[in-house]
Design brief:
aminoacyl-trna synthetase; 4-stranded parallel β-sheet; protein biosynthesis; ligase; 38% helix; hypothetical protein PF0899 fold; 10-stranded mixed β-sheet; 28 helices; Isoleucine--tRNA ligase; single chain; aa-tRNA-synth_I_CS
Length: 956
């Protein structure tokens, strides 16, 4: 009777498919997680463990998720899941930013599309529409985040518009109010005439912009040096519209200045023969060429340094004697030293308009210079501004108005314009409307950086915080060192009202904690709407009369909202803790959420609300030339990716990228990650297939295993130590690389390949097969745990396929405790040498196969010449024929013949290949002389014949 040898081979068997079908399978996994309430089960399993709290920086609830959201939330989820598997309690509460311009702007867009006037809508109705809009998007984004595999307390998230949050934000404002940190001031702020509000630094982005530039004469009326008599100080500016707000001229004390008298002119020059111009010496030739002056005489230089010849000089405003101005500019314009004045461009003099620039304002304040009010919130000049009344800087769509043109025309008519041109440069724009901004002097409410030493406290807190990467510390520190006072008021409707009453008689804000608490209590019951719907006496109580106070109608800027989340999330929820272990956002949040959270917490609690800050980069299109964004038309949505390829591919992309830098993203990159995913999936499939039917009775102790298996256990110990360190270091890129390399190189390309024969053909009770299956079981246990934070769906699918433990989910496990005794560095060094020799052998075999001299490596009989004693010692007691997957092998000490195969990077090893002697075993396919000697298994080798007898499958 013949034997069906194929039926006696232990081929892999598993229901884990090669084709993942993630787009269909992942929603099924999500449904099962929801049914078992995985998050609650994790919390039950984590009782009493050390807490790990990553506090969620709130995204805006105003649209579908983009790929930046996916990067951010996936990275947070990977970190939370990994720390949970370290044996901690990683309770994650997601949150949303629901107030402010991003939401309000969407409602206004709807109004504009419907031809509706926002100002005609009652305040409470408008706020209700904003609230409903945000609530709708919270629901949409919740489902989109869940689809990415993000696990958290989705039933109890936080939102900045919840009544308890609005109440706590009021209390936080009250703390600054009570300690004197809040004050009302007038200062130029970046203002959007489109959105009609001040913007925070984090709401500003810089784009190329073409500005009109002008060179303007300011006649000297009081000279401190004879050279300045009858001269004009020449200024240059890129904002002609700010000339009506001019009140001074800035100069640099270390800059060398001179005076030149014009002699001859070029064609179309606006200079005048005989006039004297004062400017920086380093810029003189450039100005001469720009102004088309053919020749001039250098009359002399002015003393530089402190007490220079310019200090004390007074000029006239260009329109002092211009009749149409009707005397509106009859004041003197002093020259003031400013350390921000440079000779990079212009004339070396800076025209100072204190209402239209931060440096201008600071210099004016230092010298008691008037700060005029010139431009209103719509970008129009006030009626009281001579020559410019009603002129627009930018219109409601952000397009240039007529202000620049009118200024330039009046300067030309008054004969004060020397030259005009255009300049392309970086200019601030609103990140929402994309419209250019203006600096505009407005009355606002500020938190002082100096009162109560807020700046010092914040800097100290930075020094006590861990930053990943470390460069984040210097970046945030430099911002805090230089930042002005914090403008916390906004002239909008959708937000937390500023709980401030101003005494009409003194102009001072009411600083009474009892009043603030009454406001907060009302907000807890009714939300911020109570501020607009209530009689102010409700908040003032019996101690104050409403008619004596003005109720402020500004709202708090949203960055104060999000900066306060630590107070109404971390401190308010007993399952969390304050401070957080980690804040994680994009690198732009050094000037955003990291920044404002630090200031809010340092100002009220004396330290940062976080122990560590991790930042990730932005997303670039595939070529890395520009950022990925909808506006550029190069965006790929996460919804498209998960619907076609699955969320695990996105998750793999996140950790496979170096997220500390900007990340490239696109179809080709996703294809590459898909290939990497298949390698990992096939590793799991190999394990599952070859562990079919594994029983505890098969398990062997490590000490009883062959060296090759003990080497795999050593690698598990090595990687376990690295994984745990990488998790603590938030270095998931390195963790992924280590695990992927282990799967692709150590397992798939080596161990699995070598031991396939043992798994398929050894008898079930053989020591080698039992050892191998024991190791595969340990590898499966470790690998599913290590991959679970990253490939959360695939690791779960593998876990469920095997049904491999008491835990209902792989995400209810912790990382396996790998015995320290598995680590064997001496053995690892030996097997590193063995693998080097193997590479030379397999290289020789591949050459033989390529030249058609061999069909399979099992037909070969390599002779391996080794001229290095340490390599020979390493392989002498190793079954190198099994390791190289050949039927036989011969080891010979020496250098080998010249024609033998060699590799440059493995010196001292040469291989010659001949055909193996004997016949082919019909069960294991090895070519051996012994094949055919067993009568009851005539076509097999001795090992296979023994296996057949053991299985009762030998011929009778």
């Amino acid at each position: 009777m013949s034997v069906d040898y194929k039926a006696t081979v232990f081929l892999p068997k598993t229901e884990f498919p090669m084709r993942a079908g993630l787009a269909k399978r992942e929603p099924e996994t999500l449904a099962r997680w929801a049914e078992m309430d995985l998050f609650a089960r994790q919390r039950e399993a984590s009782q009493g463990r050390e807490k790990f709290i990553l506090h969620d920086g709130p995204p805006y609830a105003n649209g579908h998720l983009h790929i930046g959201h996916a990067l951010n939330k996936i990275l947070k989820d990977v970190i939370n899941r990994a720390h949970q598997m370290l044996g901690k309690n990683a309770h994650y509460v997601p949150g949303w930013d629901c107030h402010g311009l991003p939401i309000e702007w969407k409602i206004e867009e709807q109004y504009r599309a419907a031809g509706k006037d926002k100002d005609a809508v009652p305040v409470l109705e408008f706020r209700r529409e904003c609230r409903d809009f945000a609530a709708g998007w919270v629901k949409v984004q919740t489902e989109e985040f869940k689809r990415l595999g993000v696990l958290g307390d989705w039933e109890r998230p936080y939102t900045t518009m919840s009544f308890d949050a609005e109440a706590q934000i009021v209390r936080e404002i009250g703390k600054f109010l009570d300690n004197g940190g809040i004050y009302k001031g007038s200062r130029p702020v970046l203002w959007s005439v489109v959105e009609r509000t001040a913007l925070a630094d984090a709401e500003v982005e810089y784009h190329d912009h073409v500005s009109q530039t002008i060179w303007v004469r300011f006649p000297v009326v009081k000279a401190t040096n004879a050279l300045l008599e009858d001269a004009s100080v020449l200024i240059w500016t890129t904002t002609p519209w700010t000339i009506p707000g001019n009140r001074a001229i800035g100069f640099g004390e270390e800059i060398a200045y001179g005076v030149w008298q014009v002699e001859t002119l070029g064609e179309d020059s606006h200079a005048r023969v005989g006039e004297k111009l004062v400017l920086a010496k380093d810029l003189a030739e450039t100005v001469k060429a720009d102004a088309k002056i053919e020749s001039w005489t250098h009359l002399g230089d002015l003393p530089s340094g402190e007490g220079s010849g310019l200090a004390g000089t007074l000029c006239a405003h260009p329109w002092r004697d211009f009749a149409p101005a009707e005397g509106g500019y009859g004041f003197n314009v002093p020259l003031l030293p400013g350390d921000f004045v440079t000779t990079e461009q212009g004339t070396g003099f800076v025209h100072i308009a204190p209402g239209h620039g931060a440096d201008d304002w600071a210099l004016g304040l230092q010298h008691g210079i008037e700060i005029p009010q010139t431009v209103d919130g719509t970008g129009a000049f006030y009626e009281h501004v001579p020559l410019l009344a009603g002129a627009l800087v930018y219109d409601a769509d952000g397009k240039p108005g007529d202000a620049n043109g009118r200024v330039i025309k009046a300067l030309a008519e008054s004969e004060r314009l020397l030259h005009k041109s255009r300049l392309k440069h970086s200019y601030p724009h609103s990140w929402r409307s994309k419209a250019p901004l203006i600096f505009r002097n407005t009355p606002q409410w500020f938190i002082s950086m100096e009162t109560n030493d807020l700046r010092k406290k914040a800097l100290k807190a930075i020094d006590e915080t861990r930053f990943v990467p470390g460069t984040g510390r210097n970046r945030l520190r430099s911002m805090i060192e230089q930042r002005p006072d914090w403008c916390i008021s906004r002239q909008r409707l959708w937000g937390v009202p500023l709980p401030i009453f101003v005494e009409k008689k003194s102009g001072e804000p009411l600083r009474d904690p009892a009043v603030v608490e009454r406001v907060a209590t009302a907000f807890e019951e009714e939300g911020g709407d109570a501020w607009f719907s209530s009689d102010p006496q409700r908040f003032l109580g019996n101690e104050y009369k409403a008619e004596d106070y003005e109720q402020i109608t500004d709202v708090v800027e949203v960055w104060f909202d999000s900066g306060s989340t630590h107070s109404f999330v971390l401190e308010a929820r007993p399952e969390l803790k304050w401070p957080a272990d980690l804040y994680l956002e994009g690198s732009d949040q050094h000037r955003g959420w990291f920044h404002t959270s630090l200031l809010e917490s340092a100002g009220t609690r004396g330290r940062a609300p976080y122990d560590a800050v991790l930042t990730h980069g932005f997303i670039l299109e595939e070529q890395g030339k520009e950022k990925m964004s909808k506006s550029r038309g190069n965006a790929l949505s996460p919804q498209d990716v998960v619907d076609n390829q699955g969320a695990d591919i996105l998750r793999l992309w996140v950790v496979a990228s170096n997220y500390e830098e900007d990340l490239r993203f696109g179809p080709d990159i996703l294809k590459y990650q898909g290939d990497a995913y298949r390698r990992l999936r096939n590793t799991l499939r190999y394990l599952l297939g070859n562990l079919d039917g594994f029983h505890e009775s098969e398990r062997l102790a490590a000490a009883d295993m062959p060296e090759l298996e003990r080497w795999v256990l050593h690698r598990l110990a090595e990687i376990d130590a690295q994984v745990r360190k990488n998790v603590e270091d938030f270095d998931f890129h390195a963790l992924y690389q280590a695990v992927y390399t282990f799967c692709a190189v150590d397992l798939s390309a080596f161990y699995f390949d070598v031991r396939k024969d043992v798994l398929y053909c050894d008898r079930p009770d053989s020591l080698r097969r039992r050892a191998c299956r024991t190791v595969l079981d340990e590898v499966f246990s470790c690998l599913t745990a290590w991959l679970a934070p990253i490939l959360c769906f695939t690791a779960e699918e593998a876990w469920w396929t095997r049904g491999a433990g008491p835990e209902e989910s792989v995400h209810l496990r912790t990382f396996p405790e790998v015995p320290a005794g598995w680590r064997d560095d001496v053995l690892a060094d030996k097997w590193s040498k063995v693998r080097d020799v193997r590479r030379v052998v397999t290289g020789a075999l591949e050459l033989e196969r390529a030249d058609k001299r061999l069909g399979s490596s099992l037909q070969g009989h390599p002779e391996v010449f080794i001229g290095r004693p340490e390599l020979l010692d390493a392989v002498r007691d190793v079954a190198l024929d099994d390791i190289a997957i050949t039927s036989a092998i011969t080891l010979t000490e020496g250098d080998g013949p010249a024609e033998a195969f060699r590799l440059e990077d493995v010196s001292g090893v040469a291989v010659s290949v001949s055909l193996a002697e004997g016949d082919k075993c019909q069960r294991c396919w090895k070519v051996l002389p012994e094949v055919g000697r067993a009568a009851d298994a005539p076509e097999t080798c001795a090992r296979c014949a023994d296996a057949l007898q053991h299985l009762g499958a030998a011929a009778q």
